[in-house]
Amino acid sequence: MTFKPTELFGGAITANLPASYADVSNIREVPDHQEIYLDASGFSSIIVEIAERVSQPPTDQEALEFHFHDIVDEHDTGRIWQTDVAHLPHFPPNTPCYTLLATTTPPAAVTNGDVGAKAPAFTGVMLTLIRLVAQSTDIVVTINIPHIPGHQEPSDGALDFEDGRFGSLVEAGVKIRDEVWRSLEVRDWGLFGAGGDV
Q1: Quick check: pTM over 0.90?
Q2: What is the pLDDT of residues 135-153, one digit of tens each?
Q3: C-alpha span between 132 and 162 (Å, rounded)
């Protein structure tokens, strides 16, 4: 997989993203607080979002789960399989950073084909939360890996998230996540307003 340096939010943030991913804002309107990149050769996406720092629920772990459940469609079922501390070298050493690996599953009617052939059987979600306390900001990076019937890997029948068998699609998503962690950097802290300075 090839990565390329990518400017986000007008260059205020930079990260290495897969070269095959395209900026969605070139084809449709994207909210100012989000950057969305879509795999031109598949169905996966990367979303970088700048959000107001969640103060309720009070703990970082609960905030991580809050951000995940906030993106789960009200009709879908979300399940978190793993949570951990994330390491992002371009942020100050004491910056709280957390990650989770989860899945979202649509209702049975969708997966049975009632709502089109390209509805995912489930979507693997890798969410990273970077908590900028002084800036009252949460940066949320979400990598979505839909598993579309007829398009997923041949080994999908052996997938077992509880046992750590995530399949090649999600494993590729983990590699993307790790490269984003390694490269994500704030170039202009003024992006976060008056509390922008580190």
Answers
A1: no
A2: 999 999 999 999 877 665 5
A3: 32
